[in-house]
């Protein structure tokens, strides 16, 4: 019998397929693999009967030859069926929602979004990941809060959703074990950017969550996995198409990742900014993304008749304190002491900063000349912060959660030479000239006049034929 909160994820009946080398050869030569053959490969990955070199060879064959929609769907089903599936009370049907981002710089949207949706009556079992390279991870951000525990069993997740309405947790051992193996192999075999492998990795974890609705934030731009809007749109369309075939009510949004989300980058600094958003303040672009993504989810699950009304409802939870209350409850339920949770969520900013990791050194960089801020590039900022300890170059590497940067100016703002534009938080004895040069390259100035700060790029991708969510 399955443990409470878990049930078998199912999947096609296993029938022995061709030998693994034959499958690798066929995919290497661009042939189509049948569902039972893909399931056979995933089964071998899960039970350990395949060699690491064979996994790497198959992943590279998929990366170079691609998979069609049917193969991608089969791979997703097989991976989802490699472990257990979360089971929820029947009365939660229609209210279970989640969001996934393909990764960005300063992307702290999940932190205020989950409690805001909980304040709207949703159940949000947010299974998140860690950062790797220059992109941040939601679990790492949450661990900047003293005592916060991201390791929660399915039974504990059910308790969190029952009493709080949301949780932010890591992937448990029982869920999609094939993905943990394949994801680690992709990272060391230069196959991370395969559209089919990305789709299967993301959706297999969401399928086992038993969701009513899912939204996918697909980033594009210099600091994103896919630089061009066209590439990101192709990934979004694949995710939405395969997700729909798997029974998910799913949509995707395309958002730009040339500049950081908000004004702060780095784990402790992003928690602080997320709290400001939960207080009805903070950077306008962060609030925009939280309300628009949240509003679209409320529309998808049928809680609101339009995404615009959903966005207004999410905004209300940020302004009236109900989302902040849910966040405080989540902190306490996931291991944070009541006094720390209360101080973080209701204390003054200075008290909040004393509770979060703080870097010993803060220094400001100044504008090298007069000009208007045309762009603040996210990638150079993230690359330097990674090298200073905020990011990983390999899985499992320890992070310095206090390292980060605060952007002190806005795009469109006119600056005089010598105006501080960036405050860096770090532990290095001396910042190297190379790091200074890289950071200064993130500030792009022009001779043009000041202009209003643009709103985040936001394009919605829906299934080809979308029924009204209430139907």
From TrEMBL:
Its EC number is 2.4.2.4. Pathway: Pyrimidine metabolism; dTMP biosynthesis via salvage pathway; dTMP from thymine: step 1/2. GO terms for cellular component: cytosol. This is Thymidine phosphorylase. Gene3D superfamilies: Nucleoside phosphorylase/phosphoribosyltransferase catalytic domain (3.40.1030.10), Pyrimidine nucleoside phosphorylase-like, C-terminal domain (3.90.1170.30), Transferase, Pyrimidine Nucleoside Phosphorylase, Chain C (1.20.970.10). The keyword Phosphoprotein applies. Belongs to the thymidine/pyrimidine-nucleoside phosphorylase family. The lineage of its organism: Eukaryota, Metazoa, Chordata, Craniata, Vertebrata. InterPro entries: Glycosyl_Trfase_fam3 (IPR000312), Glycosyl_Trfase_fam3_N_dom (IPR017459), Glycosyl_Trfase_fam3_N_dom_sf (IPR036320), Nuc_phospho_transferase (IPR035902), PYNP-like_C_sf (IPR036566), PYNP_C (IPR013102), Pyrmidine_PPas_bac/euk (IPR018090), Pyrmidine_PPase_CS (IPR017872). One of its GO terms (molecular function) is 1,4-alpha-oligoglucan phosphorylase activity. It catalyses: thymidine + phosphate = 2-deoxy-alpha-D-ribose 1-phosphate + thymine. It is an enzyme of class 2 (transferase). It comes from the Eukaryota. Keywords: Glycosyltransferase, Phosphoprotein, Transferase. Residues 372-446 form the Pyrimidine nucleoside phosphorylase C-terminal domain. One of its GO terms (biological process) is dTMP catabolic process.
